[in-house]
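XRE family transcriptional regulator
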Amino acid sequence: MVDLGARIGAALRRERTAAGLSVSELARLSGVSKATISQLESGGGNPNVETLWGLGDALAVPFARLVDESPESVTLIRAADAPRIRSATSSYGAALLSASPPHARRDVYLVQADPGTPKISGPHARGTVEHVILASGAALVGPASAPLALLPGDYLSYPGDAPHLFESQVEGTTAVLISEIR
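Predicted structure tokens:
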């Protein structure tokens, strides 16, 4: 398994180059500093969820394209070994478990969160739908204007192309999040 930082760096450089953007132009479009982009492309740094979403949006690529490994015939990711990317604004971390294969548009994440500041996400690409299955704990999830309380085993689907949130109510809350673009 390739180190997460090196994987992000190679993917970011690949996508920036494919888009024909300089580091300066990507910084302007994403709101991420040139120094941070350069550091990430060299395999350094510790990017948060917001930074990677911003870079993905500026590059018009899914978040997953910046963190996923090439698929193998059998993939096992132990919960303790999942490469988590932390939020800069809340006690929330997501580990990409399965990126959408070519010609399909869905990604699967394992989310771990603790009570505190909710993870508020802005709208993703038009047509995005998020599916959440709460595995443990309790959380308020869904549209930012009207989140719903989830308990273990509950499933919720909501528009990901509108502001939405995930707010843990119990220490050690975990969920599976599937993001798809229709």
